[in-house]
Amino acid sequence: MARIDVRHAKGSFRTPIVLASGPAGFGFELAETLDFRSLGALTTKTITPEPRAGNPQPRLLDAPGGAINSIGLENPGLDAFRGNVLPRLRELATVRIVSLAGRTPDEISHLAAALETEPGVDWLELNLSCPNVRGETMADRPNDVAAYVREARSASRRPLLVKLPSCDNLVALGEAALSAGADGLTLINAVRGLRICVDTGRAFLARGTGGLCGPAILPIALARVFEARQAFPDTFLIGTGGVTRARDAIEMLCAGANLVGVGFGVMADPAATFALAAEIEQWLDERGIGDVADLVGAAHRGGWSVS
Ligand code: SIN
Description:
This protein has 307 residues and is an alpha/beta fold. It has nine helices and twelve strands.
């Protein structure tokens, strides 16, 4: 049987499938019926220093090929996360990636330092790309990215990922994150989108725009992961955006992702998401490919010949 575990010097993953931050919450409801051993990791909802109620309703909407959300980082805040959430997270049979956001680099430092001695926090992911809290965590200048990452790096020795948006200066942002001490990049977040009610002429979402997720953004995410793999041949990448099927995940690996994040997919069909790793394994076995690592970046090497 093919190997589907993903090895990294700072920690390994049982499979290449990661629950992306957001739709799975903290995973508890899913853990009642689904086996977390079929996942490589769970990424938590993003935690901020203080609790947040998120954006006003309505904040979730259908869109062609997916959905638009404007949740706005609703979360219980650091203290409740440590006291109520982490003890339960520790029981999940998978790697835990804790997603963090702050209004300033100092807030990131505070969060990272507070979690440094907590068992059960396996990796950190800085969310610098939420499309729903304008002017706050959307770090779109390399200097800002570097400032956030430096603070996290000096406060924590945990392996550190940085989640970046789909943007034309992605490589510059990635370079800034990696130079400041990130161990890898998560690409991409939901893409800003808008829908308007034709009966009223007003935006459907209370906040106007939101983040488009789902199959509609798969080609965008693939292009960004491909671009990042070209720029950073040895960097650890989580490719996320629009993956709902095993063949989407395989495309993401071929584009250059080491791990594949699933967000909208887990909202649409959690059981199908948990079955992805077994389907990838079967796909590899049918083709005599011995290790999922052989797929990573295949599109950069000219793919393979079909007999
Ligand atoms: C949200 O809370 O608005 C979604 C999280 C994200 O897109 O980073």
